[in-house]
Each structure stands twice: as structure tokens, then as C-alpha cells.
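Hey L., structure's done. Input below.
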Amino acid sequence: MMKVTPLFHSPHRLLVGDAPLVGVLDLPSSASNSERPPIRLFFPATTVSPKPRRVKQARYFVNNRVSYVLQGFAHIALARHTTKLYRFIVRPLMWMVSLFFPVRFLKIPDTALVTTNKDDSPVRYAPLDNSNKTKSQSLIMFSHGLTGTGEENALFCTALAKRGYVVACIHHRDGSSSRVPMPDGTCKFYEHLPNGDDYSPNHRLEQVSFRAKEFLYATKWLLGEEQGGDDYDHPILQQIRPKLDTKKVIASGFSYGSTTCSLAATAEPKRFQCAVFLDGWFHVDYSSKGYLYNFPPEAFGEDWPNGANNGNERSHVIGNKDGLTIPSIFINSAQFEGYEKLYAATTTLASNINTHNKHDSKTPESTLHVIPNTKHQNFCDVGFWLPKVLLRRLGKLLALGDADVLEASENILDLTLKFLKKF
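Output:
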């Protein structure tokens, strides 16, 4: 019998765990609480009804908004959304492309989509620890990368939830996302940085500070410490919140998201148990304009570079002068290892954490790992969205390395899980 080769890489090997299902709850921006960013929540779940037809699998994009996301990336790569070229040619073209874009037809295995209809949830929260201990649930807060939306890391979040973690993926509204819905019903596109003499080092420094504040607020909101009259206090949240352990909160992020959560954990180190950094962006090199610094400076226990804030003292003051101190795992691509200054900064940050904790025998060591033959986008779901034949032709364009897509994802996940088991 002839063996049929699957068209796509299957993620099923990643989604192994004790949770029967992974519930996915999309919490959009709330007009009544403008401080909370949109959140996609992944949690261990089981069905409420024995009828499987009631369970609808989640898709990679919220509301399967493929056109919405493609239009955001077209704004970055092809034409600004304010131009006639975009409105009359690019936007209609992206809409047509989205109708046949493969990811439109894909679903995330072992998931159940929870709608915002509070009275009709197909699943309920099913913690793996069913003991009488009221607070035993670990919470992972995840921050997406530059130009991202968080939806491109859905498999990583699903795989962690399948193993019992509650994972909250934040969609940032600072202008670093390709496109994000805002509380007033509008959307915000990616903010292009000025070039040449108009470049200011303040932009990224202030941007990541805003992202870190969103990260911290979303963490407190999920823990029930911040409410703010939010419209989306879903019954699922009421099931999860009593089990969340404030001492078991984990900071995580991809690329710019690693920068974000490192700053958040530096600002409030007692709030986070540990951190998971996926191909983190920890160095800014704009040496042609005289700007070369570790990023974010606060995580390294350093000040903002000269020229930021017009030469005045930095506006974003963090009381923790030691920099980032919580135990962390740094998982890098071979591509980022090849950037000498970036990799040196990453190594320095890991070393600083270990130096700070060297007299505490109970604190696990911070470690740095490189996944061979990988590039930046091997840390996202892109390799699972397109047929294998297209990946072979477009791999370099999509910043995918020569490593097998599934094996690279398994390595990233295995390193993450081994690290988290230490806590």
C-alpha cells in the first residue's frame, strides 16, 4: 500500500498531556476597562455535555480573522494603511488571498473554543490538581513579538495548557503589533519608526515600558487583584481564579515579548516565580547613530543610554537596581546565536541572574540553550500553517531554518517543560 505523505506538519505530537481538552477563551478589549489588553486564555478543560458536537475547535486566529491579520502585515511590508494604494488595491487583495490562505481551514487540535456567551460554554475548567488545596494552579503570562499578535504562538500555549498550565497570551496595543483591536472599536496598526536623523532611542524604550505595564496589569487582572468594571468577567474566569497561586506565576515571551516580560519581572520580581524567554531580543544596535545598548537596560541593572529623554535621567525608574534576578531559561535560535552582540547580551543576562542567586542553593540555575539549524520563526506556528511543499520553497523568506519544523518545536517545548518542573 502506498504511503500518503501529509500535506502539513501535524502538531499532534506536541499536544500530549493529562488534560482531556484545552479550552480557548478570547477576551477582547473592554470599553469599560481600557487598561486591560486583549487576552487569549488557554486552560485545561473537559466537556460539560457528553455530546461532542457541541465542542467547536479553536482556530489559530481569533474569530478566524485571517484577512484582518494579513492586512496588518501588508501595512508593514507593502503600503501604509492610510494610503490610496492600500485602501483600493492592497486591502482588497489581502481579503481575496485570505479566502484561500491555508491557515483559514486549519484548527488547533485538542481545543474547545469558548464563546463570550456566558450561558453556553461547551467546556469547564478542569485543573489537573483536584486536591482540596484551593490555590495550586500555575499561571503563565505570554507576550508576543514585534509585529506579532500572539496568535502565532498558539501551539506553544496549547501544549502548556494540555499539561495543566493556564496560559494567558496578551495582544499588546502599543503600536508594536501588526494590527490590534482597540476598546473603542477601532484598530491600531503597527507604528513605523522614523529613519535617519529623526530616529530616537526613546521610542523602543518607552514602548517596551508600556508593554510591561500592560503585562503586569493583565497579570493582576487575571489574579483578581484588578477588576476595573470589566465587561468580560466570564464564568470560566470565576472557575479559574480561586485556584490560581500568586506564587506560581511564570513570565514568558517570544522575541520582543521576552524583552517585555523581562522588564515586568525586573519591576516586580516577587510576583514571578521564573521566566521562559524564547529567542529574546536583548540588545539594540543602531551604532550608525551612536545607539548601542542592552535591552531593556533595567533588566541588566543599567540606565537608559545617553540621548534618551533628551539627556535627562530616565523617566522609567525601577527600584530593583540588581536588574532581572528571577531564575530563567533562555532558548535561542541558531540565527540569533550568530548575532554576536545580541548573543553576548543574552549570555550576560543569564550570567547576571546566576551571580545574583549563587548563594541561594534552593534557586534553580538559569540556563541558555540554542536549537540547531533554526531561525527566528521556528519559535512560531508559521511552519504549521503552510503545506510542506511551500515551506521548502519559502522557508528562507519566512525566516525558517533547515531544522525539521516539528522537531524544533518539540525541542523548545521539552526544554521549557524540564525547566518548569524544577518549581
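DSSP finds eleven helices and 14 strands in the chain. Residues 51 and 378 are 37 Å apart (CA to CA).

-- N.
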